[in-house]
């Protein structure tokens, strides 16, 4: 057999195909690590988002330590330790800060500095980018809430709920976090630039905190303010957390005279769907002046 025949009979090696990317879920976990490291490097964000509820809990509980929050429950006024009443509101606002505020500001900044534009040009699927945000929010929210509960129980003797109430805590926490996250994505298109994002988003969150029973007892707020607060998720997250950490008798002081678990789930679910629809329709990878 000649060399020519040998060469002619040899088959060329198949060309190597393009490398297959990991699944969007796996890429989302990788992106979550990037998001978490980026969050931790922003020390001011860590202080105002992660530590803020802890600091506020410590300040208010120390200032009003030993005092009772009194409620008119029929023929008599019933009191509860201020720290115990304040804890559900702090958990609710911590959830909103870690989800809505963090996501809305971070996306607006990443759009403004070109990060989203560069990510759009990579093979990273959009769903992996958003999964990274979700995982980062969940990790921060869990750590933040665990710190709040530990601080309240160990430093201020706040009684913890029984086993049955932790199930209510779980679904209110998960649904509230998910709602805050998707609403943050939808709201991220409102600020006109990354520089204005912090002022715009923080202002909205502060107003909601004051009218949603975070800093004040919700039943003591004016009726018109309660009605406005009932349109937004934070009021319902706080009410759900009160149903976990306050005695059942205190449901009577709520505007409806009960904890309204179905209404909490329905309202948060509506906001979750609304945030998804608006987020999908309005999300932009580029700045307004970038086409």
TrEMBL record:
Which keywords, in A-to-Z order, does the entry hold?
Antibiotic resistance, Cell membrane, Membrane, Transmembrane, Transmembrane helix, Transport
Residue ranges annotated as transmembrane are 45-65, 85-109, 130-156, 168-187, 199-218, 263-283
Q: Cell membrane: present as a keyword of the record?
A: yes
Known Pfam families for this protein?
ABC2_membrane
- Location of this chain's protein in the cell: Cell membrane; Membrane
Topology within the bilayer: Multi-pass membrane protein
Leader peptide range in chain numbering:
none
Q: Out of the domains of life, which is the source?
A: Bacteria
Residue ranges occupied by any ABC transmembrane type-2 domain in the UniProt entry: 44-286
Similarity comment text for this entry? Belongs to the ABC-2 integral membrane protein family.
- What protein name applies here? Transport permease protein
Q: Source species, please?
A: Myceligenerans crystallogenes
């Amino acid at each position: 057999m000649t060399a020519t025949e040998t060469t002619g009979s040899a088959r060329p090696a198949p060309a190597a195909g393009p490398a297959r990317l990991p699944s969007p879920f796996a890429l989302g976990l990788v992106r979550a690590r990037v998001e978490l490291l980026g969050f931790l490097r922003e020390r001011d964000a860590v202080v105002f988002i992660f530590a803020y509820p802890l600091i506020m809990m410590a300040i208010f509980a120390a200032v009003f330590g030993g005092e009772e929050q009194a409620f008119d429950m029929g023929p008599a006024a019933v009191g509860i330790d201020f720290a115990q009443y304040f804890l559900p509101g702090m958990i609710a606002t911590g959830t909103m800060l870690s989800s809505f505020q963090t996501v809305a500001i971070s996306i607006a900044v990443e759009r403004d500095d070109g990060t989203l534009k560069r990510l759009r040009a990579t093979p990273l699927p959009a769903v992996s980018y958003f999964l990274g945000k979700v995982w980062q929010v969940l990790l921060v929210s869990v750590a933040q809430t665990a710190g709040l509960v530990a601080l309240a129980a160990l430093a201020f003797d706040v009684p913890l709920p029984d086993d049955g109430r932790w199930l209510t805590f779980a679904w209110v926490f998960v649904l509230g976090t998910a709602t805050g996250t998707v609403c943050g994505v939808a709201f991220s298109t409102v600020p006109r630039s990354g520089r204005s994002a912090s002022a715009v988003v923080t202002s909205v969150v502060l107003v909601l905190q004051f009218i949603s029973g975070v800093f004040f007892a919700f039943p003591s707020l004016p009726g018109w303010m309660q009605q406005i607060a009932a349109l937004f998720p934070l009021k319902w997250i706080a009410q759900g957390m009160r149903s976990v950490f306050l005695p059942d008798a205190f449901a009577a002081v709520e505007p409806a005279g009960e904890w309204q678990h179905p209404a909490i789930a329905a309202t948060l679910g509506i906001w979750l769907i609304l945030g998804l629809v608006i987020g999908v329709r309005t999300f932009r990878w580029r700045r307004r002046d970038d086409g």
